[in-house]
Amino acid sequence: MAKRLLYASLALVPVVLALHYLADLSESAEFVLSAAALVPLAWLIGEATEHAAEHTGPGIGGFLNATFGNAPELIIALLAVNDGLTEVVRGSLTGSVVSNILLVLGAALVAGGRGPIDRFSAFLSLGLVLVATTLFLVPSIPGWNADPDTHALAVASAAISVVLLVIYVVVTWFSLRRHRALHISSDDEIDAWSLSQALGALAIATVATALVAEILVGSIEAFAEHAGLSDFFVAAVVVAIVGNAAEHGGAVVVAHRGKIALAAEIALSSAAQVAVFLIPAVALLSWLIEPLSLSFRPVEIGALFGAVACAALLLRQGEASRARGAVLLLGYGVVVVAFYVSGDR
After folding, report:
1. pTM of the predicted model, to two decimals?
2. For labelling alongside 142, which of 59, 127, 181, 296 has CA 20 to 30 A away?
3. Rg of the chain's alpha carbons, rounded to an integer?
4. Residue 84: phi, psi to the nearest 5?
């Protein structure tokens, strides 16, 4: 049922593009429609990547997942860099990490109830986010009382990004070896598309995502002003959730089916992937457009450290429960309020 709905909602994509180029639609309406259209596109990219991985094996499959699984967020970030919306870029990236840890994991635990999780894998992911957040302090602290977008901070951010990508490659290699040794799989057999079908769907979905994301980014400021919200809040909460929406739903559905360990893996590994792969990738690729500093605000750094601490405390025994999920959701509510109150820098 969910798949049928997602397939049907792909019809939103040509509708959004037609309205943008042919109709005189308000920017606020364009933001809402483009955000809705990105959800099935994000799902299609993930689906095509999963089918392609059936033919390429876990190594290349993992690379495809890292590259294209984060495509919506990557495209949104680079388009925002091109438009000079640096606060939007940083907000959407940190918001993605926090929402994966608190919102997605919390919703999954509430949906799945009690059960064991892979404690080692969970703490490995949380550890990666912790390391990344600690390194982000290097360009962040100087920007708290000065211009956060100086060239020197962008250079420092590039150096940190290289370190994080090296860590990502090493940990990914280690995780693949560990999972192969433990014979871990999702236990879900899929009727795989052919490789050409999967790559074709991936290419079409990525191009469509770029076109829709351009409309989204171009309408953020107008939507924020119309809604009485800061650009930062819209990016850190609304855009971050939209970029991960299909993945969010997938984790909750998996948890509801009783696969709580897999759901927790999806949420936490996604958070780690954004922290040590997507954020540094955006920072390095931004040099092709305009160098981006990873000078995050105190509220963003606090939210990242707080999310890691909250999840680590609740999962320290390797057990999931609805009560723990509810606490995570409450924590996300606190973060949303903090993001709202903080406004733009």
Report:
1. 0.85
2. 127
3. 19
4. 75, 15
Q: How far is CA 225 from CA 35, 84, 220, in A?
A: 17, 17, 9
Q: What does the DSSP 8-state code read for residue 321?
A: -
Q: What is the CATH number of the domain that holds 118?
A: 1.20.1420.30
Q: Which residue type sits at 41?
A: L
Helix (H) or strand (E) holding 126: helix 119-143
In order of 28, 75, 189, 250, the CA distances from 203 in angstroms are 28, 14, 24, 22
Helices (H) and strands (E) in the chain, counts: 15, 2
Q: For residue 318, what is the DSSP state?
A: S
In tens, the pLDDT along 149-175 reads: 999 999 999 999 999 999 998 887 777
Pick the range with the lowest mean pLDDT from 7-21, 64-78, 226-240, 272-286.
64-78
Q: Containing domain of residue 7, as a range?
A: 2-342
> Do 293 and 155 form a contact (C-beta atoms < 8 A)?
no
Q: What residue type is assigned to position 329 of the chain?
A: L
**Residues present in the chain in total:** 345
Six-digit token string for 163: 């370190």
Q: How far apart are CA 238 and CA 65, in angstroms?
A: 23
- In what helix (H) or strand (E) does residue 171 lie, and over which residues does it extend? helix 151-182
| Separation between Cα atoms, residue 129 and residue 151, nearest integer Å | 25
